[in-house]
Amino acid sequence: MNTKHPNWLYNEMKTVGVDYLCTDEAQRYDEMHQRFRDYEEISRSIIDSLGIGPESTVIDIGAGTGAFAIAAAKYYKYVYAVDISEAMIDQCRQKANAAGLDNVICQVGGFLTYEHDSDPVDAIISLIVLHHLPDFWKLEALKRIAGMLKSGGQFLLFDIVLPSETSDLGTQIDDWIKTIGKLAGPELAAEAEIHIRDEYSTYDWIMEGLLVRAGFTIDSAEYNEFNATYICIKG
Ligand SMILES: C[S@@+](CC[C@H](N)C(=O)[O-])C[C@H]1O[C@@H](n2cnc3c(N)ncnc32)[C@H](O)[C@@H]1O
User: Fold this and answer.
1) If DSSP states are collapsed to H, E and C, what string results for 33-65?
2) Calpha distance 50→21 (Å, rounded)
């Protein structure tokens, strides 16, 4: 971690749960995720939701292997793909090079440590990443995200968020893990267990409260089982 940070800063480079710093994990990530995700189609739907033009610059924070960043590069001037994992971002870089994309800027960094040295951007997106931070640090991360956006800029957050108003969350969790197993196989089902046990997915009301306290207006909040998508506006 950069030495200018205080000793008490959460060490986001030390991953919890699934170890995305591991080269083997990074290499098998796309093969596993593409069993249940169509990167192109999901990215298209995000791009349509944002509705911003080809002169726009976006940051994909926790970009991983570039599920969004690579597809988005065709639609925007620059896409900053940022991730704490050199192994994951290396996969993204290789895909950008293979596709001849020179507008994907791959950087190692995280919610709490990435310094965006260029102008504030039009939009920031983050897909299945924020749950890696405990709630205390999620707020810090969201404030930093707001700081990298233009006034009126958009933040699209997708993550696993748990319903607070349910009588039997345990059964819902069991069903969620079973569904993942059916869709994507036993390795992903095991990762879903790790997710619930060791990572920091939070409740819907906490996530909404954190977004508002970080300075966002929540334009839309959609919940589909444990999948939550928020489109937020800075200010
Ligand atoms: C489940 S993957 C999601 C990757 C990508 N967004 C996608 O949709 O496929 C989670 C990613 O978050 C990254 N990550 C974990 N903690 C992070 C942090 N504090 N800041 C930025 N990225 C982080 C991991 O290295 C990993 O690449």
Assistant:
1) HCCCCCHHHHHHHHHHHHCCCCCCEEEEECCCC
2) 30
Closest CA to 124 of 150, 155, 148, 103: 155
Give the integer Cα–Cα distance in Å for 86 and 83.
Answer: 7
Which residues line ligand 1 at a C-beta cut-off of 6 Å? Answer: 12, 15, 20, 33, 61-64, 67, 83-85, 88, 110-111, 127-129, 132-133
Tokens matching residue 101: 């994309």
Residue 92 falls inside a structural domain:
yes
Pick from 20, 33, 91, 196 the residue to mutate for probing ligand 1's pocket: most ligand atoms within 8 Å of its CB.
20
Please tell me the total count of domains within the chain: 1
Which tokens sit at 20?
């995305």
Amino acid at the residue 141: A
Residue 217 lies in a domain: yes
pTM over 0.85: yes
The pLDDT tens digits of the residues spanning 194-214 come to: 999 999 999 999 999 999 999
